[in-house]
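Hey, I'm writing a tutorial for new members on how sequence and structure tokens pair up, and I'd like a real worked example in the thread rather than a made-up one. If someone can provide the structure for the chain below, I'll link this post from the tutorial.
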Amino acid sequence: MVRAALSIALALSVWCLTLPAGAQQTAMPSRPEQAKAKSTADHSKFEALKGPFTSGPEVTKACLTCHTEASKQVHKSIHWTWTYKHEGTGQTLGKKSVVNSFCGNVTSNEPRCTSCHAGYGWTDRNFDFSSEANVDCVVCHDRTGTYRKVPDGAGHPAASPRKIGKDSYAPPDWVKVAQNVGMPGRENCGSCHFYGGGGDGVKHGDLDSSMANPNRKLDVHMGKDGLNFTCETCHTSDAHVLAGSRYDVAAKDTKGAVHRGTERQAASCESCHGGQPHKSPALKAYYLNGHIEKVACESCHIPAMARGGVPTKTLWDWSTAGKMKDGKPYAEHDAKGNDTYLSTKGTFKWEENVIPYYAWFDGKVRYTLVDDKIDPTRTVEVNRIEGSYADPKARIWPFKAMQGRQAYDKGTNQLIYMNVFGQNDTAFWTNFDWPKAIEAGMKSAGKEFSGQHGFVDTVMYWPLAHMVAPKEDSLACASCHARDGRLANVPGFYMPGRDTFRWLDIIGYLAMAGALAGVIFHGLLRLLFSRNNAAH
């Protein structure tokens, strides 16, 4: 009967698409577009910015002559500390402590990884986090589009012209960059966030270079032919601390809608759209808004990731590293030129238009840290998603599920830190000297290695929040309400169209049969009485 009633409700919802809009839900507060005002200061007239400059820290010192508190503010942000203390789990997280399914870890690989740090000179664990001069102001505020850090420079741009692979790096025109600063644009944020994990689209799945200038179909908020938002439209900032963190996601935001640009603990759909975002037709809106309690907006409105023509990496298998051709490291590529095998890194898989992985999520993610014990006979969740149907804070969320196969310490059954940057020894790459790589990584972190290593399958989950499609491209009901639908493996609840219970189906069929019999009987009575009236 329940199933029959829900089926009738679905039918009514479809029928109501043809009806005029009825009573509206509570309207969102008005949010006038942020003014695109020019800066009130001409930085080319500031004596401190006329140079000459030979390095980033020199420019920062010049910036601080006016913006006296800027570096102190940046020091309090996760962009600087790369550390986050999660109050819900008690874990201390961040790039310095967490092992990932990509390059593994920052520890011992700092000069490469910290090319995306908001600072200069983080080459090892002795980096001075109290230095104000080492804050990189221009990586976020450069508006010339010419400022680039080199991949192995520990946050510094090139000091002289360099060629790295296919890319060329020239020293910045420091005076030009310093005098042409402004509010961050998508390309500023994207210079790191689009290329996390070592390349375009590698890490996130919903952030890559296609988001620097997207159309509305790719992202309804950031599309230049749409709302044309920048990152900071949603990730609002206060004293250089930005809202939103993948370490502490607002899985269900119940605070209600606010004016866009208002400071928020975490960026969320509800912070603009509220908890009743669907407006008309009335019955359809009522039905869809009922989903909000248990289904995240992103689950319906991000139908696929990596939709902008840039594939995302979905597998990284380190265990195959070390193969040689003619005694030398080699590479293999797919049709788009993406690496599918590197002797120095192993095997990769790339995909586009990827259907997300769906799971209950309450915003908490518990990481498997290096000190935690693992079961190497099972796939290790690098970050375990928490939540269930019974949890009032949880909803069904979409994720990128990054598959990995990475090294672990067989003596202790723990994940490891490994050093894979800066190895110039030919013998190291010829046989991929794993004990040497692990020993160097663990020693750098002040930890012990048993000397025995193996490989374990891993998975790492990345919540999706970007590449939001227009409403006309959101998922249809049948995408989930089907035996083999997207939510086929999400447990803990009954879903019409997906689940079947023999006794419930029998009751439903009997109810529908009874309703049909009643309609037929009523029709026969109408026909009989109409003939009697005609006889009279």
